[in-house]
Amino acid sequence: MGFFGFIGSALISAASWVGNALSSAVSWVGNALSRGLEACINIGGSILSGITRFAGDLARALGLFKPYDPDAEQFGERALQAHEAGIVPENFPDFESYVEHLRHFEIDPEKSKELSFEQKAAKGLEIAGRLMEEKLGLREGSMAEIFALHAANPEYFNVTRLRQLLDGGLDIDAIAAYFEKRIGGAESLEIEDALVDLEQATQPAKNPDEVRQELWRTVDTTAQNLENLIRKGATQ
């Protein structure tokens, strides 16, 4: 079952008001063309929990979530209930202002009982992802790809490395395409060279050829793991 079918059944079945509130999350993942994140949401459980935790940690590391902020899942819970009250991003000058409002939004404990973890997490990923995209000038949906890559290889796609990639000004869409093996030739080599340079900057003693070979192995592992997640998500 695909993500849109998942939204239509497992995510929305608890309460009718959740359907409209989750429509923006559906659109965000759909715009990203991220089969990987669709699959991870379908799988749920520890896979989805890990991505949600990573999204919150990365947002904090970038200074976009404050130290005292709720986690991404709780932001999702607030966003779902706020939507029912007519509080949506379109009512604010920018997404950051919307998130600031969510920080102070009081949830209804009874309505919270109607929400599943998957519902809150899916919306929370959209909140964290869109906030990062707007503040960093990224294409809408770019972070959905990164969240999926984290699920496929959390050791490589950790908070420290993502900060390095973003601080280094690397093209996040191109990086996702490289690790998903969707590009080749000169475009792939350009991204590969940038990743090797970045890795060598943190490990100057390493031989460049050794760094490149390690990167190739990481790409193979990540792409295979991502494909396995997609296959597993399709059976959920």
From the N-terminal CA to the C-terminal CA, the straight-line distance is 6 Å
How would you state the average pLDDT, rounded?
87
Instruction: State the secondary-structure class.
Output: mainly alpha
Secondary structure tally: strands? 0
Give the helix proportion (percent range): over 70%
Rg, Cα atoms, Å: 18 Å
Binned strand content? under 5%
- The helix/strand order is HHHHHHHHHHHHH
Major pleated sheet: none
Which residues sit in consecutive blocks of at least 5 with pLDDT less than 50? 1-10
Shape: globular
Please give the count of helices.
13
Topology:
Layout: H1 3-11, H2 16-32, H3 35-43, H4 45-61, H5 72-84, H6 95-103, H7 109-112, H8 117-136, H9 142-152, H10 159-167, H11 172-179, H12 185-202, H13 208-234
Helix pairs in contact: 1-2, 2-5, 2-8, 3-9, 3-13, 4-8, 4-9, 4-10, 5-8, 8-9, 9-11, 9-13, 12-13
Nutshell version of this structure?
It contains 13 helices and no strands.
List descriptors:
mainly alpha
Structural account:
By secondary structure, the protein is mainly α. Helices cover 72% and strands 0% of the residues. The protein has helices at 3-11, 16-32, 35-43, 45-61, 72-84, 95-103, 109-112, 117-136, 142-152, 159-167, 172-179, 185-202, 208-234. Helix 4 (45-61) crosses helix 10 (159-167), helix 8 (117-136) packs across helix 9 (142-152) and helix 12 packs across helix 13 (208-234). The longest helix has 27 residues, at 208-234. It starts with a helix and ends with a helix.
